[in-house]
Design a protein that fits this description.
alpha+beta, Endonuclease, Chain A, 3 domains, three-stranded antiparallel beta sheet, three-stranded mixed beta sheet, elongated, Restrct_endonuc-II-like, DUF559 domain-containing protein
């Protein structure tokens, strides 16, 4: 005899076992091989195609006093994480006040004190706000990684950008969060990192590129600069730029080796140079080692471009 089919309203993500009756699931169906027990009282359909938020939602639903925090909240917000945290898929749950930490399988429990506005709801999930998540991450990551996380929160691009985006929070929001928790673990590191957070970096690699140049004693490149064409229209959006020398820095990730992306990169470089700029392409390997190659690449480019400083062309501002 064939099994009774699963109800169509089965969640596309995790859910408390206590919600089975509401979902139209019998206890027998709840114990089927197609439904995985994530933790005590928590289930997930085996072939769920839900988002990160949907997969983690059930953890917060188990206890109304809990919310997702740290790395789990960061994944939902899209905040950059360190390599170690990216590889650690344990669930971070926080309970407010002086009650006990959440304790269950595959969960890192936290006991935290929240001020108004530091816990929010996103896509039906209770979690810490972007600014509070950033401050919580500060105790778990290096200063460079905390800067990259901050950059990923404050990054924004206007509607004329190929990939418009709105900031999750502002630098002032991060500054206010640090001021609100002067004695919290990691706050000193967050305060130091805050001085290096900038608007305009789209990836942790772009942040690393900027910090590497700064640490080598080079001037800080400008983010969110737009190169205009002969008619004053936006033409090229460098990842970073030395505007005075007309040097455009472009970080080429691993996907830039693909044929279609490679052709786009060549077209972009041709346009950049036609507008009177020099493009410096930076690869992942250029950021590695005790003497990153990106430093020499930029120094050579700046040395060459200084000879062209008197160039009076008005294109490519």
């Amino acid at each position: 005899m064939s099994r009774t089919p699963m109800p169509p309203q089965l969640p596309n993500g995790s859910f408390p076992a206590s919600a089975a009756e509401t979902l139209g699931l019998s206890q027998k169906q709840l114990r089927r091989a197609g439904i995985v027990t994530l933790s005590r009282g928590l289930r997930l359909p085996l072939h769920s195609k839900g988002t990160v938020a949907e997969h983690l939602r059930g953890y917060a639903e188990l206890d109304p006093d809990c919310c997702l925090s740290h790395g789990s909240a960061a994944r939902i917000h899209g905040i950059s994480l360190s390599v170690a945290l990216e590889e650690d898929w344990r669930i971070h749950l926080a309970r407010s006040g002086e009650r006990w930490k959440p304790r269950r399988r595959n969960v890192v429990g936290h006991q935290l004190t929240f001020k108004p506005g530091e816990v929010m709801e996103l896509d039906g999930v209770r979690l810490t706000s972007p600014a509070r998540t950033w401050l919580d991450l500060a105790q778990l990551m290096s200063i460079g990684d905390v800067v990259a996380a901050g950059d990923s929160i404050v990054v924004e691009h206007g509607e004329n950008h190929p990939r418009p985006r709105r900031a999750l929070a502002t630098i002032d929001d991060l500054r206010a969060m640090v001021a609100a928790h002067p004695g919290m673990r990691g706050v000193r590191k967050a305060r130091l990192a805050l001085d290096l957070v900038r608007v305009g970096a789209d990836s942790p690699q772009e942040t690393q590129m900027r910090l590497t140049l700064l640490h080598a004693g080079l001037p800080e490149p400008t983010l969110n600069h737009v190169i205009l064409n002969e008619w004053g229209a936006a033409a090229v959006w460098p990842d970073a730029a030395y505007v005075k020398e007309r040097i455009a820095l472009q970080y080429d990730g691993r996907h830039h080796g693909e044929a279609v992306q490679y052709q786009r990169d060549i077209k972009r470089q041709t346009l950049t140079e036609r507008l009177g700029w020099r493009e410096v392409r930076v690869h992942h390997e250029d950021l590695l080692g005790p003497r990153p190659e990106v430093v020499d690449k930029v120094r050579r480019a700046r040395s060459t471009r200084r000879e062209l400083a008197p160039d009076a062309r008005k294109i490519g501002v």
